[in-house]
Design goal:
heterodimer, A: alpha+beta, globular, B: 482 residues, 5-stranded antiparallel β-sheet
């Protein structure tokens, strides 16, 4: 990719014009944080939304914020912090994990396009679930909207959902409107040392099946460390009013004895590290996968991943999310795919050197009937195939 | 009056042959063709619109649904999916040349896993049926539409249903993990599953709320949640709707999200009180019902905090429940609101627009003015925390002029919702009712884009046609519904 040919319009109309005038496919990106994710794009020019910046609407009492796609996560978090509000799914900053430390912080458009959610996903809200509205430009260069700025909206087909997680292959997101949540006055984490993953997931399940409103349930396996804690340790987070957290933490400790409580900033630093998968620090020659599966299947998957590729791991979402780091080889990839399949779950190759991610299926293949629908949906939004060709699957 | 596509003569002409084909696929009494037995299917919860279908099919398995859809596709027969028929937007209104596929016989609970906090159920299981299956262990299924006793999870998925408790727990879309869906070609697709956030396009997201436009859902995997230790309600009555609206804003801005925050205006308070004798304040212009949850101590603390906020708005009265029984009494009137309005008016249209909550006072004032202009009563009850209005427009169905005015009044309310930054429907769906208002909210290119996505799933537009999208531009010949 040549910088000379890089397009970075500062207006939505500029994005539309760029797409209408594009004679060849474009690689779509925000700040480039997740460029190493999925497959290398087959395009020689890039179209970035990084110059579409600024918060365009913020109504704290309505818990709604709109921002242009290129607005960065720290900018949004700072604005929300002034009103004690948060992005409930706590979208991650994966620069360290993806080896893009040199890039600017992730943009909200990029995060939505990748549908990246952090630990609080366990409470029921993925980033895409909090997208109330979206403005985007389709492959034909038409400026379109879906959704709006109200919390409930079932008017017509929800194209917000299709765009979220489509990695720029169906449209270029120019602005998003997000549902917000209140920041809890108090956060604390119960860290319970455990024997192994099976015991850890059982502890997380005990927390999640309690009536105490756990908002984070992760595990550092043996050999990993974060915020002064060393695995294997199960971590349960409470966030609420002062009195509620006190009451609930006492009961959680009663149910899961022997743990230690991390307070305030210590708790926040821990969950930021888990959010960003920071304990994993993969090397240049390593690959990173993310498996999504039912928590009860996780212990067997962990054993399989360790046995087959000696993976370094991090568990979140009550055990339903496994980050795995291992050798960047096709054999290792096949082993991960096999472990995901055996668990009845799914996988994503998050990071690998270009040759590997160009050679393998980076997400599970779709059955033929769904692949046919996918091709028609792609054509419905991007009729000439200009947007991020090859990003998710070969030729699509 | 709403228009429907002209029936296909070739389908009506081959009626007997088509019915015989369906009977071969769904044996026993699973195919209904006699007019008397078809009659219950001629309308859904929006009973102002009626149309007898060609036939009703009641499959008992995903395989039968697939066979029926394949057969209908091969024969060019339109298909209208139906759950319990509780749609208030005419989403399950039949067409004269269509086969209604009713899901009520697929009502098995296939798996419950407390460890994984999920349940796998067939599409015809009722919303409350899921909670009933797991409440013994202290769990529940969160979205709770008013019709939860009757409505089916498959229909909830199709309409992305909400309910009073969605303020905290989200709508159907936020509580789904997967679906099994049959395409118009009779292909069975497994979307999502017993895990969060699959990679690839978010098929689950686009299917949820698609109102039967993309396929028929036969199985659903839902998240189940552990219930809080308890919950309790309070009510607060105010001198004006503006003041009550301001109190809602203040509660939401305080950082405490109640589990439910319901708003009733004066006509609604009076109708509900006459019906339920819940002890509602009849001198109030507006009333809030606020529910919190947690341990007894937490409930006390939360209710005290909300009481303090409400006290700043010069309330006429406040009543904090001190027991579960008192909470039930506070909710009793609200839960019976639709029935209560049904007692004071021969008929009513229940509207379903959503607005930014800051626009509440303005919108309620305009609805009041329009009520006088149209000469029709209106009672307002809604989910205030998320701005989802349910104005109940009272009219007399035996007077066609009254119905015409009610429809026009309703359309004006929805236009107003869009004008202030809201939308045409918050939880009931577009169906046939709001179809022709879609251009109020969307531009022509936006509607065309949605139609192209629909076509990607259903190229011949056989699935629930004449719903959601305006007929103009479809080239369909139209005929008025009965």
């Amino acid at each position: 990719m040549s910088a000379v040919l890089d397009l970075a319009p500062s207006t939505e109309e500029g994005v539309a014009t760029a797409l209408r005038n594009a004679a060849a496919p474009l690689a779509v990106e925000g700040s480039g944080t997740t460029l190493g994710m999925l497959r290398p794009v087959q395009a020689s020019r890039t179209l970035s939304t990084r110059n579409l910046t600024g918060i365009t609407l913020y109504r704290p009492q309505e818990m709604v914020l709109s921002a242009r796609a290129g607005t960065t996560l720290p900018e949004i978090e700072a604005a929300l912090g002034e009103h004690n509000q948060i992005l409930v799914p706590e979208p991650p900053d994966l620069r360290a994990l993806l080896g893009t430390e040199g890039a600017p912080p992730p943009t909200i458009g990029g995060l939505v396009a990748a549908n990246l959610s952090g630990p609080r996903r366990i409470t029921g809200f993925a980033l895409r679930d909090t997208v109330l509205g979206i403005r985007f430009v389709n492959g034909a260069g038409e400026v379109l909207r879906s959704g709006g700025r109200v919390h409930k909206n079932v008017t017509g087909l929800d194209l917000c959902k299709l765009l979220a997680g489509s990695h720029g292959t169906l449209g270029v997101i120019t602005e998003v409107t997000l549902k917000l949540g209140p920041a809890a006055p108090r956060t604390a984490t119960l860290a319970v040392p455990v024997e192994d993953e099976a015991a850890g997931i059982a502890a997380l399940s005990a927390g999640l099946t309690s009536p105490y409103g756990v908002t984070g349930a992760a595990m550092l396996p043996a050999g990993t460390a974060a915020a002064g804690l060393s695995g294997p340790v199960a971590l349960l987070r409470l966030e609420d009013l002062e009195a509620s957290v006190n009451y609930r933490m006492a009961r959680l400790q009663g149910a899961l004895p022997g743990g230690r409580v991390l307070e305030g900033d210590e708790s926040r630093a821990l969950w930021r590290a888990i959010r960003d998968a920071a304990p994993l620090s993969p090397g240049e020659a390593e690959a990173v996968w993310r498996l999504s599966l039912r928590p009860s299947a996780a212990p067997a998957a962990v054993r399989a991943l360790r046995g087959a590729i000696g993976a370094r791991l991090l568990l979140d979402w009550g055990g339903g999310l496994i980050w795995a780091v291992g050798p960047a080889t096709e054999a290792a990839h096949e082993a991960v795919v096999g472990a995901a399949r055996a668990a009845g779950g799914t996988f994503t190759l998050f990071r690998a050197p270009d040759p590997l991610r160009a050679a393998v299926a980076v997400i599970p293949p779709e059955p033929p009937a769904l692949a046919a629908i996918a091709a028609r949906v792609k054509a419905a939004l991007d009729p000439t195939g200009r947007l991020n060709p090859g990003r998710m699957r070969p030729g699509a | 009056m709403i228009a429907l596509p002209l029936p296909k003569p070739e389908v009506l002409g081959r009626r007997n042959e088509i019915l015989a084909g369906l009977r071969a696929l769904v044996p026993g009494d699973g195919v209904i063709t006699e007019p008397l037995r078809l009659r219950p299917y001629e309308t859904d919860g929006l009973s102002a619109y009626r149309q007898m279908p060609l036939a009703v099919v009641l499959p008992t398995s995903t395989e039968q649904v697939a066979a029926v859809l394949r057969f209908c596709r091969d024969n060019g027969v339109r298909v209208v999916p139906r759950g319990a028929g509780t749609s208030l937007s005419g989403g399950a209104l039949p067409l004269a040349d269509a086969v209604v596929v009713g899901m009520m016989r697929m009502n098995r609970i296939l798996e419950v896993s407390f460890e994984d906090r999920l349940a796998v159920v067939e599409a015809g299981v009722t919303n409350l049926g899921i909670t009933k299956a797991v409440e013994g262990q202290g769990f529940f299924y969160a979205p709770d539409p008013s019709s939860q006793l009757a409505c089916m999870i498959g229909g909830n998925v199709m309409m992305n249903s909400g309910g009073a408790h969605c303020l905290k727990y989200g709508v159907t879309a936020n509580n789904l993990l997967g679906v099994k869906i049959v395409t118009v070609d009779g292909e069975v697709l497994e979307i999502g599953g017993a895990h969060l956030d699959a990679a690839g396009y978010d098929w689950l997201g686009i299917i949820t709320g698609s109102e039967g436009q993309l396929g028929i859902v036969t199985e659903v995997t839902v998240r189940i949640l552990r219930a809080a230790e308890g919950q309790r309600a309070m009510l607060a009555a105010f001198r004006s709707t503006e003041v009550a609206g301001a109190a809602v804003d203040a509660i939401m801005a305080s950082g405490v999200i109640p589990v439910a925050l319901e708003f009733m205006d004066r006509p609604c308070i009076h109708a509900c009180e006459a019906f339920a004798h819940a002890g509602y304040p009849l001198d109030a212009e507006a009333m809030l019902i606020i529910e919190v949850e947690g341990s007894a101590e937490e409930q006390d603390a939360l209710l005290e905090s909300i009481r303090g906020i409400c006290a700043r708005f010069d309330p006429i009265s406040m009543r904090v429940a001190t027991s579960a029984e008192e909470s039930t009494a506070i909710w009793k009137g609200r839960k019976g609101a639709f029935g209560a309005v049904g007692r004071i008016s021969p008929d009513y249209l229940c509207m379903d627009g959503t607005i930014p909550t800051g626009e509440l006072p303005h919108v309620l004032r305009r609805i009041g003015e329009m009520s006088e202009e149209y000469g029709l009563g209106v009672a307002n009850v809604f989910h205030a925390g998320d701005g989802n209005l349910h104005p109940l427009i009272m009219f007399d169905a035996n007077d066609p002029e009254s119905f015409r005015r009610a429809e026009a009044f309703g359309a004006d309310i929805l236009r107003l919702c869009v004008e202030v930054g809201g939308c045409l429907t918050g939880e009931h769906g577009v169906g046939v009712e709001k179809r022709d208002l879609m251009p109020v909210q969307f531009t022509a290119p936006e509607l065309a884009q949605q139609r192209r996505v629909k076509s990607a799933f259903d190229p011949d537009w056989l699935l629930n046609p004449a719903k959601v999208f305006p007929l103009e531009g479809n080239g369909a010949l139209t005929v008025a519904a009965e």
